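Dear H.,

Thanks for agreeing to be a second pair of eyes. The structure we're designing against is below in token form, covering all 226 positions.
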């Protein structure tokens, strides 16, 4: 951010007439970054989420390949792997498309500022002004696109890296079941172990029932008995 601001400031100091162009470029750049940053962060989170099942399925296939061939489930495992890879590839494609979207707009902004500085340089040369500041302004105008792209991508990556932290926070904030302990019993949940039975909320079901829908056991290799 400091390098980006210093490059814009150098252009303005070298060519004061370029101030309106630099201000317009800065406003458009802020709008583009504000639009791109949250969308790109969510796209990277989507890539991370869809990449996990691919790795998990690969591990299951490596460990349970014998069972898949023995029970003639190789075709189903391959079809499931293809479906997971297609979903992950779609997320990757969307992420790359967002990066190209940002690159195109930053290139247009950099080219616009470079054109304005170039025209001002020609105008200054015809008036007989020194060409040193003009060359410095042109040099910093060329670095605007790279600095802007690096800044936006760096902020986006930093935001996307918090996906794991958000998952851990969500898991740590899950409510615990109340401790059920009788007279002198030891509870195994969250709460005070004072020997009194916990009060069950009235919205809890009075009868327990376990329903399995589309249950598919994962393939694994049983550990050898000692």
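And this is the sequence the design step returned. I haven't edited it by hand at all.
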């Amino acid at each position: 951010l400091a390098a980006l601001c210093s490059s814009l400031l150098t252009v303005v100091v070298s060519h004061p007439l370029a101030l309106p162009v630099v201000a317009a470029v800065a406003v458009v750049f802020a709008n583009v970054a504000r639009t791109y940053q949250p969308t790109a962060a969510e796209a990277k989170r989507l890539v991370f989420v869809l990449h996990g099942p691919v790795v998990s399925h690969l591990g299951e296939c490596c460990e349970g390949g014998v069972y898949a061939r023995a029970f003639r489930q190789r075709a189903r495992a391959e079809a499931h792997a293809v479906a997971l890879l297609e979903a992950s590839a779609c997320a990757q494609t969307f992420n790359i498309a967002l990066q190209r979207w940002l690159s195109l707009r930053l290139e247009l902004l950099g080219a616009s500022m470079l054109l304005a500085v170039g025209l001002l340089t020609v105008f200054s040369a015809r008036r007989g002004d020194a060409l040193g500041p003009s060359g410095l302004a042109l040099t910093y105008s060329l670095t605007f696109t790279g600095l802007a792209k690096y800044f936006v991508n760096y902020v986006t990556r930093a935001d996307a890296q918090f996906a794991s932290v958000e998952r851990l926070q969500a898991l740590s904030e899950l409510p615990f079941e109340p401790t059920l302990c009788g007279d002198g019993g030891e509870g195994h949940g969250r709460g005070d172990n004072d020997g009194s039975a916990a009060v069950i909320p009235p919205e809890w079901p009075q009868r327990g029932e376990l329903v399995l829908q589309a249950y598919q056991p994962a393939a694994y290799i049983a550990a050898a008995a000692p």
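Two observations from my side: The radius of gyration is 30 Å. Confidence is low (pLDDT under 50) at residues 182-193, 220-226.

Warmly,
E.
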